[in-house]
Amino acid sequence: MTDDDTPQQLQFGWEEWISLPGLGVPAIRAKVDTGARTSALHAFDIETFGPQSKPKVRFTLHPIPGREDLVIPCSATIIDRRDVTSSNGEKENRYVIQTPMNVAGESWPIEITLTNRATMNSRMLLGRQALKDHISIVATDRFMQPELSYDVYHSARMRHAAPERALRVAVLSREDNYSTRRLVEEGEKRGHTVEVIDTTRCYMAINAMAPEVHYDGKRLPRFDAVIPRIGASITPYGAAIVRQFETIGTYCVNGSAGITASRDKLYAHQIMARAKIGMPNTAFAASPRDTHNIIGLVGTAPLIVKLLESTQGKGVVLAETKKAAESVIDAFRGLKANFLVQDFVKEAAGEDIRCLVIAGKVVASMKRTGADGDFRSNLHRGGTAKSVRITKEERDTALRAARAFNLNMAGVDLLRSSAGPKVLEVNSSPGFEGIEKSTAKNIVGKLYEAIEGQVRPAPIRRRKGTASQD
């Protein structure tokens, strides 16, 4: 409206250019139909979400006829459901939303029903409710208001002009634990749809033209983002599922390559060595003849002997003497287990630092102290945690370690040694309970901020060589 709220007289032809900024639609052609009460907008993949008290609807639309590669994801609050009879006599129950419509610098709210208009020439129909009293219709003319252009969908400004929208997020997890529950709780609090998907119940359709992920007999819908919480026991299959989502084009918080590399302790140490990241002296050998030499490469006792498949402190042994180290190594070899031998950093005194890295920033850090008599500081083994201030060198080390594995979210475990910070491990599925409770920070909220920055608003794709249509 104008500044004094007095509507100016507008003339509409039988077709006009309008914009729907609340839905992220800067330009669309609308056919004027005074015989219809409510306006109608082309929509597909329509689905509801949110609380029952205030339900919302997600949908996508192709604003340009014949351009199915151009997709606008939208979301809005549902204000009604109505039976609508089309011109050919078919009755359809439609969701009704309300959103502002802009024409010639004026804006007013209109009601819109959502329906698939793929077979129609016009992607939108303007009904009587949208036209108001100050609009007169000239049925013999068209485009009496300023013309817009579909070129706007290919401009750099389009990404920044689009509104915030609800996201559909998948959490790949087999466990109902604190971290999974927090991801659902925080996502829904921010207005998103969050679904927990059991990784092992996913299966894949692998083909060049239409790669898909299926679950419980159905193709999974399009997700805006995937948060992998892949357990160590299913790393290969979990990484394959993440890789399939990557193939589809879904944003994955952590990629399959980073997850796989961080889980392979031998490969992980090689990656960190190549990136010149400080870590305890480490050695690996497959032959039993090399027991004496492998101990010599690391240093003198006490030593740490660590299974390559160890998690949460399991399979990690402190050998306080050379003889004890040889006995542990022989025992692991007898079980045909792969292991590393590492120098024991005495000055760490059973403590380590967990740095939580999200989107290239250390968002929180805690000091973990092992239970009495235990050199391992894992919280799962009775350790305690408290918030800690880290040094610039420790912060830089944590960031470099996460970057070496190309992880957008990582738990980097450091030891404080006399020679500077030493990285013990980079975890691609860090837990949130210990660090949220010890630091009193909303870590999961930080993660969603990073996800929203990546996938909302969604990028607009354009086929190579396709010209804009007017």
From TrEMBL:
GO terms for molecular function: ATP binding; metal ion binding; ribosomal S6-glutamic acid ligase activity. It comes from the Bacteria. InterPro entries: Asp_endopeptidase, ATP-grasp, ATP-grasp_RimK-type, ATP_grasp_subdomain_1, Peptidase_aspartic_dom_sf, Rimk_N, Rp_bS6_RimK/Lys_biosynth_LsyX. GO terms for biological process: SOS response; translation. One of its GO terms (cellular component) is cytoplasm. The keyword GTP-binding does not apply. Keywords: ATP-binding, Ligase, Magnesium, Manganese, Metal-binding, Nucleotide-binding, Protein biosynthesis. Residues 269-452 form the ATP-grasp domain. Its cofactor is Mg(2+); Mn(2+). PROSITE patterns: ATP_GRASP (PS50975). In the C-terminal section; belongs to the RimK family. This is Probable alpha-L-glutamate ligase. It comes from Roseovarius nubinhibens (strain ATCC BAA-591 / DSM 15170 / ISM).
